């Protein structure tokens, strides 16, 4: 695993030890950023199921100003912090060890996010509920982009509240779905 492109491009990233997380491959990561960017002019991102932190780090490498990375596993948090150090700009990352749903409440009242990465455990996918809670807590910026990485059984709808599906691609068992917020 590595940072694919941007300011930190080519730097290596570690995977979370064990099989509790499933890192996004470099090929799929490149495809994701070609769909949502590929580069950004600032903004904030939120990853509620960060794993190794690779998606958020890639986003900052490509121009996101600040990333908030959330995971509830100690091994994931330790890996994220190690991977953030590779950037030599740790001040651009906030790492939180808590369950995703409690962090959504914790972030209420902060500046809204422009980009969301949703790569939850396939069997515990709560993307629709999470998006509803983020909107209710005023954490979604106008025209925000949502990237959802699921398996083929997730069957996400074309519309989730004010989020409209704009792209969807299959990569083997992985499905990448992109939504834009029209709220």
From TrEMBL:
InterPro entries: RNA_MeTrfase_RsmD, SAM-dependent_MTases_sf
GO annotation, biological process: rRNA methylation
Record key words, sorted: Methyltransferase, Transferase
GO molecular function per UniProt: methyltransferase activity
Transmembrane segments: none
Residue numbers spanned by region Disordered: 1-22
Pfam families assigned to the protein according to its UniProt record, in alphabetical order: Cons_hypoth95
Superkingdom classification of source: Bacteria
Protein name: N6-adenine-specific methylase
The species this protein was found in: Weissella minor
